User: Which sequence fits this backbone?
């Protein structure tokens, strides 16, 4: 498969410069690019398989592209001294340039196809990055950018912007056949911006490779620009022109700008102007008007790095600006970002505008909200010392083999306990000595406030980004401030019981804190009950429920707990966590939650040791990733196998009776009743004493779901006891209530109204189970049940009711 990819890229590379051969090979090149895309798309699910061949593939595409870029740069930036030599030479030159541009487009489109599969950052490191490539790549990028801009212009007039005549002619040709072209112009722009981003990191002063500040020859017009525009200014102007794109080129342009502005020789001069320009863009987007000197006395247009656009900034331009700022605050040095008071004022003004935009016009833009959250976190981290908190919990050396074998060596176990206790005491002593209280800037408090608010956002990606930002920001705070953050997360769950977004965001943030060691063991007693509650979070909303993502995130929290804490620290909470994970892995409605709980349980058994999690290996062997994929098997087969362990038996029975029988999904109620019947055989006395009386009482509930599930549960338990000859566990009072259950429901008219059909089907199932279990009935009770069956046959037409009626056996039946 990889050989086919290499041959496809080679077929794109091996294109002769002859015009006749080019015309003959053009369909072959189109087919090769199409074939390359179709092959690479198969690796989207697992792109790392391409890594051994990635460098070779990129070189086969980038080296000929580099050669063509230099040829075009040298040929088109040289002005013709004598133009009266004839039109034939000009036509041949135009045709040759068009062929080279067409070949270059296919090469760059192939590079984009690889980048789409493997990722921009991996491909960028493999691109050529010689200093001599800077100006040629920049000039070709400007050409393709102009061609792309002409596609968006509806008028027939062409604004050449000083473009060479050959580029204008190529644009006209491409405009006619762009619908059938396999290579797109924007893909070429993407690859050139990717290329320019790595070139801008060359370890040389850019002024030394800038030909615009050197004496110019009379026949050379470098970059087709005036001599006043330097190389840095040209890169900034060209890259920033793509910040308003609505495709993948915007992200690449932002990364290119961030790479350039993060250079040590530019952070002192150009970064401040870009921050001010970005703040003005945000101000204009927020207010709908351009900046006013009276409202912003510290800001002036002369301090801006780039010109203010003529039209109001679009949401795409704001996204590009935020992406660039986020990348700058990630890669830039804190000492340069906040080195002077003037830079501080610019960043503070930017910070103010970002908060106002976040609280104003971002409600409908998911990506904009995510980028703002990312920017809040990174600017907040820039205001804090770049250090990892010394007060954090550190588990130390961890070994899965030692955890699994620890029970066989008592001395090793005691040694481990002593070491853990010593580390815990050392950590406690360090709280007073090294975790000094220092002044927290107001911007950090504002950043944390915005991140906590974003935890309740309606979009999952925004909540996830906010959770990661909270983890990074808390890592640099003192211990007392980290406790305040944890209190806010717990309060978020307490105050928003019915808001699934708040629970999901809080769980993600708790997992990040635990994974980084920022959730100290002393606070686990408050956190674990919240996590256990989140594992079973399921809020009913009409005829459905929400909470799948909350349960999935809570499993992630348990997974983080298992990796972060030593067995002695987590031992007091193992019972609650293990039971919750086992119940979710067996009985959750969604397969992803069942598998997530199983993965968290597996991690806990491996990291915490099999002794802490009773029967952990046996449960994992039974309920593995594949067996949990089938819901019926999980309820009816795996649950019975796990319930044979006494530690989980009672909890499974209670969970099925109290939770799953009351589920909103009728299929889950049916499976739960059958599963409860099978598990009840393992502990019939407990089921008859603690489960059946409550279910009999709930059969008369006003809630249809509770009434239906309880009736099914009673029916299946009665049948299970009858088949196992365990009728002696039912006392006479319970048997009497069971015999009178269906007539009592009829007397209270609980079959009428909404949901009467499913109640009649459950009542018929109850009659069937009473019959098969040989529950003694009086003649009057038998007659009333037979009448009910005839009525159900007359009224209900469902297959379930019909099957239940035809299966009825002794002591009475249909004649």
Assistant:
């Amino acid at each position: 498969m990889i050989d086919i990819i290499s041959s496809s890229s080679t077929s794109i590379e091996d294109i002769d410069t002859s015009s006749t051969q080019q015309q003959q090979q053009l369909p072959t090149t189109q087919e090769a690019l199409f074939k390359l895309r179709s092959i690479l798309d198969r690796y989207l699910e697992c792109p790392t398989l391409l890594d051994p061949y990635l460098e070779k593939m990129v070189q086969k595409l980038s080296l000929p592209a580099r050669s063509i870029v230099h040829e075009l740069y040298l040929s088109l930036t040289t002005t013709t001294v004598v133009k009266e030599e004839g039109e034939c030479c000009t036509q041949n030159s135009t045709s040759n340039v068009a062929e080279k541009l067409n070949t270059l487009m296919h090469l760059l489109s192939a590079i984009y196809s690889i980048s789409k599969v493997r990722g921009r950052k991996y491909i960028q490191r493999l691109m050529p990055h010689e200093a001599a490539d800077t100006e040629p790549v920049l000039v070709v990028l400007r050409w393709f950018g102009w061609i792309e801009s002409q596609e968006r212009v509806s008028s027939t007039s062409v604004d050449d912007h000083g473009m060479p005549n050959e580029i204008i002619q190529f644009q006209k040709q491409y405009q006619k056949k762009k619908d059938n072209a396999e290579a797109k112009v924007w893909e070429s722009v993407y690859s050139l911006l990717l290329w320019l981003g790595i070139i801008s990191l060359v370890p040389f002063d850019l002024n030394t490779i800038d030909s615009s500040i050197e004496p110019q020859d009379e026949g050379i017009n470098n970059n087709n620009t005036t001599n006043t525009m330097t190389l840095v200014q040209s890169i900034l102007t060209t890259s920033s022109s793509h910040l308003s794109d609505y495709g993948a080129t915007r992200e690449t342009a932002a990364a290119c700008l961030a790479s350039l502005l993060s250079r040590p020789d530019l952070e002192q001069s150009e970064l401040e102007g870009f921050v001010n320009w970005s703040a003005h863009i945000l101000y204009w987007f927020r207010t709908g008007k351009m900046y006013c000197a009276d409202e912003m006395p510290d800001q002036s247009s002369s301090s801006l790095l780039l010109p203010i656009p003529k039209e109001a900034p679009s949401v795409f331009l704001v996204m590009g600006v935020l992406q660039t700022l986020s990348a700058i605050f990630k890669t830039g040095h804190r000492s340069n970002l906040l080195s002077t008071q003037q830079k501080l004022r610019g960043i503070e003004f930017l910070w103010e505008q970002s908060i106002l935009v976040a609280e104003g016009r971002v409600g409908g833009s998911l990506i904009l909200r995510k980028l703002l959250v990312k920017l809040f976190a990174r600017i907040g981290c820039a205001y804090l010392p770049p250090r990892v908190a010394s007060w954090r919990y550190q588990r130390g050396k961890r070994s899965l083999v030692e955890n699994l074998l620890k029970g066989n060596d008592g001395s090793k176990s005691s040694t481990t306990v002593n070491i853990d206790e010593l580390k815990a005491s050392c950590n406690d002593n360090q709280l007073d000595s090294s975790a000094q209280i220092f002044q927290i800037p107001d911007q950090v408090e504002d950043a944390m406030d915005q991140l906590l608010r974003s935890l309740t956002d309606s979009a999952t990606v925004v909540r996830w980004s906010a959770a990661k930002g909270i983890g990074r920001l808390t890592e640099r705070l003192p211990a007392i401030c980290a406790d305040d953050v944890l209190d806010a997360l717990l309060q978020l769950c307490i105050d928003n019981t019915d808001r699934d977004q708040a629970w999901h965001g809080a769980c993600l943030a708790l997992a990040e804190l635990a994974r980084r060691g920022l959730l100290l063991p002393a606070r686990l007693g408050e956190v674990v009950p919240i996590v256990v509650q989140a594992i079973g979070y399921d809020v009913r909303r009409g005829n459905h429920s929400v909470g799948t993502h909350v349960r999935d995130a809570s499993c992630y929290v348990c997974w983080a707990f298992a990796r972060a804490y030593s067995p002695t620290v987590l031992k007091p909470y193992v019972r609650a966590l293990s039971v919750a994970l086992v119940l979710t892995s067996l009985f959750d409605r969604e397969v992803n939650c069942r598998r997530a709980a199983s993965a968290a349980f597996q991690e806990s058994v491996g990291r915490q040791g099999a002794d802490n999690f009773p029967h952990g290996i046996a449960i994992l062997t039974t309920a593995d990733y594949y067996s949990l994929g089938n819901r019926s098997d999980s309820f009816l087969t795996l649950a019975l196998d796990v319930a044979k362990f006494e530690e989980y038996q009672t909890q499974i029975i209670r969970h099925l009776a109290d939770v799953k029988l009351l589920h909103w999904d009728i299929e889950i109620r049916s499976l739960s009743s059958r599963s409860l019947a099978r598990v009840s055989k393992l502990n019939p006395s407990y089921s008859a004493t603690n489960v059946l009386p409550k279910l009999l009482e709930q059969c008369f509930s006003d809630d249809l779901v509770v009434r239906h599930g309880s009736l099914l549960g009673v029916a299946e338990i009665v049948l299970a006891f009858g088949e196992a000859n365990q009728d002696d566990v039912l006392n006479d009072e319970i048997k009497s209530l069971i015999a009178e259950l269906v007539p009592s429901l009829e007397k209270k008219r609980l079959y009428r109204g909404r949901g009467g059909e499913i109640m009649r089907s459950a009542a018929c199932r109850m009659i069937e189970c009473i019959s098969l279990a040989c529950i003694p009935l009086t003649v009057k009770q038998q007659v009333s049940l037979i009448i009910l069956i005839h009525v159900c046959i007359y009224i209900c037409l469902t297959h379930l009711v019909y099957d239940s009626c035809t299966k009825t056996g002794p002591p009475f039946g249909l004649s």
